[in-house]
Amino acid sequence: MLTCKEAAALIGGWDDILVICHENPDGDALGSMSGLVRGLRSLGKRAGWYCASPLPEKFAYLFQGLEEIDFAPEHIVTVDVADSKLLGDAWDKFGDRIELAIDHHGTHVPFAKERWVEPGSAAAAEMVWLLLKELGAEPDEAAAGCLYTGMATDTGCFRYRNVTPRTLRAAADALEAGAPAGDINQRNFETRTRASMEAEKLITDTLEFHCGGRLAIIRLPQSVYESTGASENELDGVESLPRQIEGVLIGVTVKERPEGKIKISLRSNPPVNAADICGRFGGGGHPGAAGCSFEGITMDEARQRMLTVCREYLQEIGSI
Hints:
By secondary structure, this protein is an alpha/beta fold. The protein has 2 domains: 4-189, inorganic pyrophosphatase (n-terminal core) (Alpha-Beta Complex); 194-316, Diaminopimelate Epimerase, Chain A, domain 1, CATH 3.10.310. The chain has 11 helices and 11 strands. The chain has helices at 4-12, 27-42, 89-94, 124-135, 141-153, 165-176, 181-189, 194-204, 222-228, 274-279, 299-316, and strands spanning 17-20, 47-50, 75-79, 98-103, 114-117, 208-210, 215-220, 250-256, 262-268, 284-285, 289-294. The strands form 2 sheets. A 6-stranded mixed β-sheet has the order 6-7-8-9-11-10. A 5-stranded parallel β-sheet has the order 2-1-3-4-5. 43% of the residues are buried.
């Protein structure tokens, strides 16, 4: 396991670097990827990026002015990727060449030749900020905005328990470097489309409580997207709705994916560890936010499996 200084020493001797994030990317994955690419280019290195999924329009601003370049990467780095199975087709294309994984998930499954993993970091973007400073880079306004986005989105705008003094210092440094925090916060936390509001109405209608109100479950079938016109990235954050309800320790969102998979997004409040629960199904994540998926079963069957395991977990920890 590498330290920040060792990861910087490794990357410092490289050129022609490809940075990859996980498929179905969130703000931290895209902010870390774009911020690292910008930082590496500021050091005179050739750097590009790859994601198996289309870039969400919501985060298009992260790539403004960041032109794609045609080059043959000699070195490959991943950011915010906890497991090779989250890379999508990037694993088929580049899997055997990944030299460094930069990640902050406690459930990280090693897949790269080297890894720098810090479960105590609130966001991969926090780690990338420290890495660029260690490399001697001076992130400009655009790079600072990318990395601020990653830190803000993975902490619920610095509200979650994963926030540390170091997180806030890194975010403050990003602001000093020119990150337009107000604009970024408004875009990501205070702006909603009408379609997303219509979709949320349908989703909240599926809300159900179990285990004396300690467990709340919502469902997100494909029909919600079809009837409202909302896109998947417009519903980022809906997974947190059940956890926000007073008394709820486990919030489960059961999502129907277009390819037939059932994705589970789990959010929790102490003393529940979401990663422990999802780990029982081969998933992972963080204590407060984790996920797993099922294939070959219906949404209702997935819901029932989660209900059973969550009830068992709450009994094990003495919360019901």
